[in-house]
């Protein structure tokens, strides 16, 4: 089990709109942050992304349940994200599972998240959610 990954996950889980200055401790200035909805390069863009995330979503919680270092300076975190947003899921909590692939030296310089964007976002939109639910039933 990787001490770096555990320390990173613990610090990441404690981030909120008032602690975004801690991103400098987690990420290198040239961080490459990629997820199914974004591709961001550089710490200022990543900070702006998290500022917007924390301004729009509420009760954001990451529960980390896997820490796999596959080589020195490379590993995966498995997590469950829970949050609320007034325009998603009728304001009820949204949960999705995912994993993060991290590359690091002393700080993370590449962070790539893998998750189902539909389960995170699209399925919880008022009109689109119904269409996606119908489509899933039809394909099943």
Query: Rg to the nearest angstrom?
Result: 16 Å
The DSSP helix count reads 5
Q: What gross morphology would you assign? A: globular
Question: Can you summarize the main beta sheet?
Answer: 6 strands, mixed
Secondary structure: helix percent: 25-40%
Query: Strand arrangement, largest sheet?
Result: 2-1-6-5-4-3
Q: Tell me the series of helices and strands, N- to C-terminal.
A: HHEEHEEEEHH
Number of strands: 6
Q: Which structural class fits the helix and strand makeup?
A: alpha+beta
Mean pLDDT: 87
Distance between the termini: 38 Å
Unreliable stretches, pLDDT < 50, 5 or more residues? none
Q: What portion of residues belong to β-strands?
A: 35-45%
Question: How does this structure look, described?
Answer:
There is one protein chain. With 140 residues, this protein is of the alpha+beta class. The protein is built from 5 helices and 6 strands; from the N terminus they run ααββαββββαα. A 6-stranded mixed sheet has the order 2-1-6-5-4-3. The model has no long low-confidence stretch (mean pLDDT 87).
């Amino acid at each position: 089990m990787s001490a770096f990954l555990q320390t990173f996950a613990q610090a990441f889980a404690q981030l909120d709109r008032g602690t975004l200055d801690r991103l400098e401790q987690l990420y290198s200035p040239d961080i490459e942050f990629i997820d199914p909805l974004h591709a961001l390069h550089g710490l200022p863009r990543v900070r702006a992304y998290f500022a917007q995330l924390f301004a729009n979503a509420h009760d954001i919680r990451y529960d980390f349940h896997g820490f796999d270092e596959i080589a020195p300076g490379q590993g995966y975190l498995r997590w469950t994200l829970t949050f609320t947003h007034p325009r998603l899921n009728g304001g009820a909590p949204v949960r999705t599972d995912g994993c993060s692939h991290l590359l690091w030296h002393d700080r993370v310089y590449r962070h790539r998240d893998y998750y189902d964007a539909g389960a995170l976002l699209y399925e919880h939109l008022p009109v689109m959610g119904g269409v996606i639910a119908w489509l899933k039933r039809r394909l099943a």
